[in-house]
C-alpha cells in the first residue's frame, strides 16, 4: 500500500500505492507509519519524499471506510510523526491532493506541485470537516479569509493558485517527484522549525467576528439547514482564537457531531450514487464496460427554442461542430443571435475564446446528411416529431445516430418511423440545457448498445451526469413529478396555501417550493399538456363528475389559475404576484387566496389545518412510491439512478440524499404505514397506494438502499 525506496543514496521515497486514487485506507495509513519510522531511523536517509503512484498524490480518506467502525491506525498520529521528525519531508503532488491527502501534504515540511495538480479540502461536500488538522493548519498557513473560503466550499484549487496562496513552495511542469527529490536534498540541513505549520501563529484579521458572521450568513443562505459548513466555520474560529493543540481538540469534537449524522451519510451516498449512475446496463448484457461509444465530431440540433439553444451551446463548448436548424428565417436569426450571445458570455466567464467557428445555422434538413449525430428538440408534439424523424431517416447517412430531446414521449414510436431504429435513443436534457447537469439517456427496446454508449459518453463529454432510463411516459424524472405536483394541489384544495406548502418544502431543504418553482418554469406548458390529453378544456367528457377524471381525483385549480392568464413569473402573476413580468420576488397574492376560498365553498370543502409534516409526507412519500414503481417496472436500474436524477434535475436537497435514500432514512416501514394511512383517507388517489416493491422490501426487513437491487432482480427490467 506504500512502496519504500532509497534513492539518490540518501532520500527515502515513499510512494502511496492504492489505486485508483491512493486513498488513505487503513493499510495505507499503516504503510505510511512504518515507512516513516524506517526513514527516520535509517542514518543513511537524510530527507524524505512522499508521492502517489500513477500520477495521483492522494484523494483523501477512503470514504468507504466511513460506513463501518474505524479500523487501523488513526491518521493524526501518523501525520504528526512526519512533522515532528528531524529530516525534511517533501510532498510531491501530482494529479490531486484532496481531503486527508491535502492534510498529509500540510504535515510535510515542503510541498511541490505539478502544474496540472488540483488541491482542496472537499470534506464539507461529504457532510464532515477536515479533521486531520486541516481546519487548524490551513488558516495558519494562508490566513483566515482564504482558508475559510476553501474549507466551507470544498473548492478544488489549481497548483498556480496554491502557489499564490502560499500553500505550495514550488510548481513544476516536470515530474513533481523528480523535482521534489532535488528539492529535498537542498533542504537537508536547513532549520525545520519554521516549516512546522503547527508552530505558526494564525494571522488574525482585526474584524474576525464580522468575517465569521458574514461567512455564517452566507452559508445559511446558500445551504440552509446543512450542518457541515457551520461546523467548519466554528473550527476555523478555533484556529484563530486557540493554541494549536486546543484547536485540534475542538476540530475533533466538531467532527464527532458530524461524522455519524444523517446528513453525512446522505452526502457520502450521493458521492457514490453519482459514480454508480454512469454504470449502465441493457437487458442484452451490454453495459458500460463492454460497449464502445462512437466518437462524435459533428452534430445537428433541430429546433432553436430554449432547449435547442442550450443543447447547441453544450455541444459547441466541448469542441463539437454543430449545425443548428430552424423552420423559419426569423426564428433562425433569433436563435443564432441568442446562441452566439450565450457562447460568448460562457467563454468570457471561463476565460477562453468562444467557439463560434464550430456553428452553422440552416433552414434545410438536407444540410445534415453527413453529421455523426442529430438531437431533435422541436415542439413536444408526437406527430411533428415523427415527421422530423421520417425526414432525417431519408436525409442522414445510414450511420447517423438520431436522438430526441422529448421530455416524456415514446422514443420507440419515433424509432419506428426511421430506417434505423437501433440508432435511435432519447437524450433528455433539463432546462436550461447548458446549465443543468442532468441528462436522461432513454433506452428504447430497439436502441443498440453502441447507441446508448455513445449518448452516455457524449453526455459525459458535455459535463453532464448521464443516467440511463427506460422508455415509459415521462421517463423517470417527469413520471415521478406528476404525483408530487398532484399532492401539492390536493393539499391546496384541503386547506393549505401555496406559501405554506412552499415553506414546508423549503424548510426541508429545497431551494424553492413547488409553487415558486412552477412560477419560474411557467404554468402554461403543463396546462397545454393537460388540454391535449383531455384532462381540461373543451374535450373533457361532460359525464366526468367534478374533480374527477377517469375515476381518479383531479384538481382543476392549476387550470383555473391559467385561465386567468397567470402563467408565472413571465406574466408577473402565477401562484404568487410579482411587481412586474420577469421579476423573481414572489409575494403572496390575495386573489389566489380568494380563488381558493371560492373554490372550496363551491365544492363544499371544509378547509382544515394541515401540518408541515403532512405536507412533507404526502409530497415526498408519494414521490418515492412512484420511484419504487419505476424500479418494479425496470425503468430505472437502481435507486441510486433515481436519486441522481432528482439531485441533478430537480434540485432535491443533496443533504437528504434523494427521494429513495430519504425514504430509507425515514424507515421503509414508516413510509409504508403513512402511505397506507393517506391512501385510506384518499382512496381515489391511486398514487398513494403503496407499491408492491415497497411492501416487499418491508417484508424483507427494510434492507439498506444499496441492497434493494437484489430484491428487484426477479422482476422485469428494461435496462
Ligand atoms: C477514517 C480514517 C481517518 C481519516 C481522517 C482524515 C479524514 C479525512 C477526510 C477525507 O479525506 S474525506 C475524502 C476527501 N476526498 C474527496 O472527497 C475526494 C473524492 N474523490 C473525488 O473527488 C474524485 O474521485 C477524484 C479524486 C477527483 C478523481 O476523480 P475521477 O473523475 O478521476 O475519478 P472518479 O470516477 O471520481 O473516482 C474513481 C474511483 O475512485 C473512487 N474514489 C474516489 N475517491 C475516493 C475516496 N476518497 N475514497 C474511496 N473511493 C474513492 C470512486 O468512487 C471511483 O470508484 P469506482 O468504483 O470506479 O466508481
Automatic annotation (TrEMBL):
Gene3D superfamilies: 1.10.1040.50, 2-enoyl-CoA Hydratase, Chain A, domain 1, NAD(P)-binding Rossmann-like Domain. Belongs to the enoyl-CoA hydratase/isomerase family. In the C-terminal section; belongs to the 3-hydroxyacyl-CoA dehydrogenase family. InterPro entries: 3-OHacyl-CoA_DH_CS (IPR006180), 3-OHacyl-CoA_DH_NAD-bd (IPR006176), 3HC_DH_C (IPR006108), 6-PGluconate_DH-like_C_sf (IPR008927), ClpP/crotonase-like_dom_sf (IPR029045), Enoyl-CoA_hyd/isom_CS (IPR018376), Enoyl-CoA_hydra/iso (IPR001753), NAD(P)-bd_dom_sf (IPR036291). Residues 474-578, 615-702 form the 3-hydroxyacyl-CoA dehydrogenase C-terminal domain. Its main location: other. Residues 299-471 form the 3-hydroxyacyl-CoA dehydrogenase NAD binding domain. The keyword NAD applies. This is Peroxisomal bifunctional enzyme. It holds the Pfam family 3HCDH.
Amino acid at each position: 500500500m506504500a512502496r519504500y525506496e532509497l534513492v539518490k543514496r540518501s532520500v527515502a521515497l515513499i510512494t502511496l500505492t492504492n489505486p485508483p486514487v491512493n486513498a488513505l485506507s487503513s493499510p495505507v495509513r499503516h504503510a505510511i507509519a512504518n515507512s516513516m519510522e524506517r526513514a527516520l531511523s535509517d542514518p543513511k536517509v537524510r530527507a524524505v519524499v512522499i508521492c502517489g503512484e500513477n500520477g495521483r498524490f492522494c484523494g483523501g480518506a477512503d470514504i468507504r471506510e466511513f460506513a463501518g467502525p474505524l479500523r487501523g491506525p488513526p491518521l493524526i498520529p501518523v501525520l504528526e510523526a512526519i512533522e515532528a521528525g528531524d529530516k525534511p519531508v517533501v510532498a510531491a503532488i501530482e494529479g490531486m491532493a484532496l481531503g486527508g491527502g491535502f492534510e498529509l501534504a500540510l504535515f510535510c515540511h515542503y510541498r511541490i506541485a505539478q502544474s496540472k495538480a488540483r488541491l482542496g479540502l472537499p470534506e464539507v461536500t461529504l457532510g464532515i470537516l477536515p479533521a486531520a488538522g486541516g481546519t487548524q493548519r490551513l488558516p495558519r498557513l494562508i490566513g483566515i479569509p482564504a482558508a475559510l473560503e476553501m474549507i466551507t466550499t470544498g473548492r478544488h484549487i489549481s497548483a498556480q493558485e496554491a502557489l499564490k496562496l502560499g500553500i505550495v513552495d514550488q510548481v513544476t511542469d516536470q515530474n513533481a517527484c523528480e523535482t521534489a527529490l532535488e528539492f529535498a536534498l537542498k533542504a537537508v540541513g536547513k532549520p525545520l522549525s519554521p516549516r512546522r505549520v503547527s508552530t505558526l501563529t494564525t494571522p488574525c484579521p482585526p474584524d474576525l467576528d464580522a468575517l465569521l458572521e458574514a461567512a455564517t450568513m452566507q452559508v445559511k443562505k446558500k445551504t440552509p439547514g446543512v450542518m457541515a459548513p457551520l461546523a467548519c466555520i466554528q473550527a476555523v474560529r478555533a484556529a484563530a482564537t486557540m493554541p494549536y493543540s486546543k484547536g485540534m481538540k475542538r476540530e475533533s469534537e466538531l467532527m464527532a457531531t458530524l461524522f455519524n449524522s444523517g446528513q453525512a451519510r446522505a452526502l457520502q451516498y450521493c458521492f457514490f450514487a453519482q459514480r454508480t449512475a454512469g454504470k449502465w446496463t441493457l437487458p442484452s448484457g451490454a453495459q458500460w464496460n463492454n460497449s464502445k461509444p462512437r466518437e462524435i465530431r459533428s452534430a445537428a440540433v433541430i429546433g432553436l427554442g430554449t432547449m435547442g439553444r442550450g443543447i447547441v451551446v453544450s455541444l459547441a463548448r466541448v469542441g463539437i461542430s454543430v449545425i443548428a436548424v430552424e423552420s423559419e428565417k426569423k426564428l433562425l436569426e433569433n436563435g443564432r443571435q441568442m446562441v452566439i450571445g450565450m457562447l460568448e458570455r460562457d467563454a468570457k466567464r471561463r476565460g477562453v475564446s468562444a467557439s463560434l467557428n464550430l456553428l452553422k445555422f440552416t433552414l434545410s434538413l438536407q444540410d445534415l446528411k453527413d453529421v455523426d449525430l442529430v438531437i431533435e428538440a422541436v415542439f413536444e408534439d408526437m406527430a411533428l416529431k415523427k415527421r422530423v424523424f421520417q425526414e432525417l431517416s431519408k436525409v442522414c447517412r445510414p450511420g447517423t445516430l438520431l436522438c430526441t430531446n422529448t421530455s416524456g414521449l415514446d422514443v420507440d414510436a419515433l424509432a419506428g418511423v426511421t430506417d434505423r431504429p437501433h440508432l435511435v435513443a432519447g437524450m433528455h436534457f433539463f432546462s436550461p440545457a447548458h446549465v443543468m447537469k442532468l441528462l436522461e439517456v432513454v433506452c428504447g427496446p430497439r436502441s443498440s448498445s453502441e447507441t446508448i454508449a455513445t449518448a452516455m459518453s457524449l453526455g459525459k463529454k458535455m459535463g453532464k451526469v448521464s443516467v440511463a432510463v427506460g422508455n415509459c411516459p415521462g421517463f423517470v424524472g417527469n413520471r415521478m413529478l406528476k404525483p408530487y405536483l398532484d399532492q401539492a394541489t390536493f393539499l391546496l384544495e384541503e386547506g393549505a396555501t401555496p406559501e405554506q406548502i412552499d415553506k414546508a418544502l423549503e424548510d426541508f431543504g429545497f431551494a424553492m417550493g413547488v409553487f415558486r418553482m412552477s412560477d419560474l418554469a411557467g404554468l402554461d406548458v403543463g396546462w397545454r399538456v393537460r388540454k391535449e390529453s383531455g384532462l381540461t378544456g373543451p374535450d373533457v367528457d361532460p359525464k366526468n363528475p367534478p374533480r374527477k377524471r377517469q375515476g381518479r381525483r383531479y384538481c382543476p385549480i392549476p387550470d383555473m389559475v391559467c385561465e386567468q392568464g397567470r402563467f408565472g413569473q413571465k406574466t408577473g402573476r402565477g401562484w404568487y404576484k410579482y411587481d412586474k413580468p420577469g421579476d423573481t420576488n414572489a409575494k403572496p397574492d390575495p386573489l389566489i387566496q380568494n380563488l381558493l376560498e371560492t373554490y372550496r365553498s363551491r365544492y363544499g370543502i371544509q378547509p382544515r389545518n394541515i401540518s408541515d409534516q403532512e405536507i412533507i409526507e404526502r409530497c415526498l412519500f408519494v414521490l418515492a412510491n412512484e420511484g419504487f414503481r419505476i424500479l418494479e417496472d425496470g425503468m430505472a436500474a437502481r435507486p441510486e439512478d433515481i436519486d441522481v436524477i432528482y439531485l441533478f434535475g430537480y434540485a432535491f436537497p443533496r443533504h437528504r440524499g434523494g427521494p429513495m435514500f430519504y425514504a430509507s432514512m425515514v424507515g421503509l416501514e414508516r413510509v409504508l404505514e403513512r402511505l397506507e394511512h393517506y391512501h385510506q383517507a384518499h382512496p381515489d388517489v391511486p398514487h398513494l397506494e403503496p407499491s408492491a416493491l415497497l411492501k416487499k422490501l418491508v417484508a424483507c426487513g427494510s434492507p439498506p438502499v444499496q441492497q434493494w437491487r437484489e430484491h428487484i432482480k426477479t422482476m422485469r427490467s428494461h435496462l
